[in-house]
Amino acid sequence: MPLTPTVRLKFLSLYMREARERAGVEPKEVAKLLGRDTTRVTKMEKGREGLTPGDAKMLLDHYGVHTEAEKAEIVELARTRSQRGRWAGHRATVPMELRPYYDFELDSSGLRLYGTELVPGVLQTMSYMRALLVARNRVDRDKIDDVITMRLERQQILFRDQPTDAAFVLSESCVRRVFGGNAVMHEQMLHLANLAQRPNIRIQVLPFDAPGGASTFGFTMLRIPAPTSAPPLEMAYVENLHDADYLDGDKEVADYANLWANLTANALGVEESRRFVLGVAQSYA
Questions:
Q1: Are 54 and 144 in the same domain?
Q2: Which end of the chain is more exposed for a tag (fewer CB within 10 A), N or C?
């Protein structure tokens, strides 16, 4: 699977930061070598700013990375460039702040998502999408069809030749919150039940009366295969109305993994959840 520019840039930033830390070099020294200020070095090491192949090679030499194979792999990642037209047409409807997440999701091999109020986008039917977009009134009416086309395209991560292994814990609110009326919700619930039968998709429902309670915020955890022999990237993604955080620190990822473990333990099992969803579907019939 070819990596998107966003993901290539992220791995470049991780490898460059790890090499600098192993060498015991301070960011201010890197800034001096590059002729940048330390703020820009921080952005580079967080995957928010690029690095030319020449600068990458110079820094790796300075860090004492002598393994030519490792150096070549990292320098090749520095050739990341934005692809012209990637966000044109219906893809232009994706807000700028969400585009990095869409790229991370596209390159993921594993996804774990906890939803609190809405059926997650990758599990939505076209009718549910349309009803949700109209209800939330955040998209111009003449753009709704383009948004739906993009969202349906995004769902292909679940159906491609090597699909993402996806697990979902849905608060009961996700299946009780009505958008578009009973017919739309009936179709959406049957869609969830059908998806739950696919080998790469696991859906659990966290009932209102779950003994362990629920998290008050949703989140997504992603696993992205490395372009080198290094371990995959594990990250947590959390968003709010105006911002989003991409968390890849060991402690942060471990904290979200523990939260995920608690949610899956308190939720109904996979088969029990499917029966629950079918029961909810019947209530909308």
A1: no
A2: C
Where a domain ends, among 77, 102, 132? 77
Query: DSSP string of 127-154?
Result: HHHHHHHHHHT-S-GGGHHHHHHHHHHH
Cα–Cα distance for residue pair 130/124, rounded to 1 Å: 10
Q: Which amino acid is at 67?
A: T
Do residues 261 and 132 both lie within one domain?
yes
209-252, pLDDT tens digit by residue?
998 777 889 999 999 999 877 889 999 999 877 778 889 999 99
- 135 and 261 within one domain: yes
Range of the domain at 162: 92-284
Q: What is the CATH number of the domain that holds 240?
A: 3.30.870
Per the domain annotation, does 83 fall within a domain?
Answer: no
Report H helices in the chain: 5-23, 27-34, 38-45, 53-62, 68-77, 99-106, 126-136, 144-154, 172-176, 182-195, 250-266, 270-284
Is the pTM for the entire model greater than 0.70? yes
Domain count, the chain: 2
| Among 58, 66, 70, 49, residue whose Cα is nearest residue 30 | 58
Any domain includes 86: no
* Cβ atoms of residues 150 and 186 within 8 Å: no
Q: What tens digit of pLDDT does each residue of 250-281 get?
A: 999 999 999 999 999 999 999 999 999 999 99
| CA–centroid distance for 39 within its chain | 26
| 193 SS3 class | helix
